[in-house]
Amino acid sequence: MGKIQAPDRAGYRLIFKGLNRVLFCLLLVAASTLLAASEKPGKAAIASAHFMATEAGHEILARGGNAFDAAIAVSAALAVVEPTSSGIGGGGFWLVHRAEDGFETMIDAREQAPAAAHKDMYLDEEGNVVRDLAVNGPLAGGIPGEIAGLQHLADHYGRLPLAASLQPAIRIAREGFPVDDKFHALMNYRIDVIKRWPAAAEAYLADGELPPVGHIIRLPDLAWVLENVAEHGAKGFYTGPVAERVIEGVRAAGGIWTMEDLASYTVKERDPIRTMYGDYELVTAPPPSSGGVAIAEILNILEPYPINELDPVLRTHLIVEAMRRAYRDRAIYLGDPDFVDIPVEMLTSQFYADGLRASIRPDRATPSSMLAGNDQVPEGTDTTHFSIIDAEGNMVAATLTVNTPFGSCFMPPGTGFVVNNEMDDFSAKEGEPNAYGLIGFVANEIQPFKRPLSSMTPTFMIGEDKRAVIGTPGGSRIITMVLLGILDFMRGNEPESWVALPRFHHQYVPDKVSAESGAFTPGQVEALQAMGHEVEVRERTWGNMHGAMWNLETGEVTAGSDPRWSSGRAIVK
Asked: Is 383 annotated as catalytic?
């Protein structure tokens, strides 16, 4: 992928928006003059799920690092303080924007299936999915990619050695960190599974029970692993003493990983999905994420509507109908692009969206069972994100995961980290929902060395006046949360608004609209139900969004951290 220059963006915009050429050229000259006056933000913004991780990123910037070095520091620190959501036993996506030439790419360090994996590995003798095997314990884990991703960032985009950017995380692992409300709540949810595995129980519990908020957790084994990586690079994780300890623990507990599985893991760079909405280019995650394709499809469907000016009920109805159709296509078409021929150009085209839009009634919900393409659907969270803009204008949107809270809950003895349970993101059985209720078919079936489909949606919004970074955890709801954040950005709101906005969601199956308390008034719920929507308002919130924005017109840099959890922090300095 080459450089992205202003004329390319202008041409792209002309194709999608049909602006008058002369007027647009005048606007472009004015915008270019403005940009020349403020080519760099001058300040850096970091918003992440934990204050110690945000501070680690700023520490590395202060040492002369750039956004990509800071991303390593934030990722590694989150791996220590937020094992509920990410860690070196998992993987993720880093979407990067390099300011000096506009180059953008996505670093894919998604977990992949081990060599011994097969499509029926979680089925019992009667062909039913054994959910416990797919979610809990080492058999649920894919080969981790996070450490390889950090090495790739340092080698190709960072300014500092990997060892330097890992120092804050190593220090935190040795000195300890306090249990916060999120750790406490999610540990309470998974404590029975944690107790199955002695190493995890010893690392995280207090005298064998749920640790209180404020309890200090120290992870010397994790510090040892990170020190090996600091000294030897990614090889210090994927080969040698660390790898031997990991494989011994995994196989002793019933897993199928091998030393060859670890040693053969590689990072991939992928061209982002690009789409226009309004006056902004959205740069977002490509497969094996479903997020970018789904976001492009939804926004293309909504493009002709003045969506932020409509009556709230009609606005919600149209958004839900677009969500429904995008999640239908997610189930049918999407998977690992190295294994599946995905019609990305078709799914993200305006022409395809035109056809989908034509099937939407403005006064009535479309039952999911009536959508063409699948007649086999049965009736019927955890990840982290951070956003960075540095003083030079480099940007990183990173979404990292171990899948459900604490992943598989299994910790190889002597390592200090839990293994992911990303194998559950594959389709264990055609049409069978996973832990998040998402269904899949052949495109996402289990195969050796394949990467499971993800909903992670790190995204940039790039215009002549503003540049922004957004993303969130939340399982199947990630895509719809990012969508609502994008629409709020388009309204002219700041990051603090995007991240706090009450959320609603539809994912095709089950055929219902889920909503946070406060998303709709009672009258709006009644009106949506009258249109045929089943609406379920939940007291429980979801997601943990973090965003940052550079306003090129004012020179201001702002950031927002989701108020749903007290541990998150957005710092601009």
From this structure: yes
